[in-house]
């Protein structure tokens, strides 16, 4: 079955919150999430992005033709301590004034098991592009679809945490991006 979740470029640029899918599938905001986890002084910290857009074009008969694109509003990160939300927008961290969006664009998808894909693509954060690959699971969820995955990255590869913040004893280099996208008809 060919399942298309598409969004025009003009619509993608106008999105301000959550995920929007064209056609008959809609985001279930209550069940979807985009989170990051990192360690600060060896203590795990979890934060969530509140505004992002996703395009998924899943062709279950010809997986290699499937595509995905994600756009994240870097100003929408919510940390457990709200006073740090503005801090991470500064030049040393996200430099959100100059780089307000992070993006992921798939370059290939391969079926590795029933309901599981290996997704390759380019992740761009703070103007730096890094080729990456990660597993993605998908399955029917009621009348929609459930997509889940996680992608570990190295923050220093993207220049996140400049100056004194390059010291990984305070904030670890590894950050895990975890996402759950649930759609309904």
Automatic annotation (TrEMBL):
Domain Lipid/polyisoprenoid-binding YceI-like: start-end pairs: 24-184
Region forming the signal peptide: 1-22
Record key words, sorted: Signal
Pfam families the record matches: YceI
Entry keyword annotation includes Signal: yes
Origin superkingdom: Bacteria
PANTHER family: PROTEIN YCEI
Protein name, entry field: YceI family protein
Organism: Undibacterium nitidum
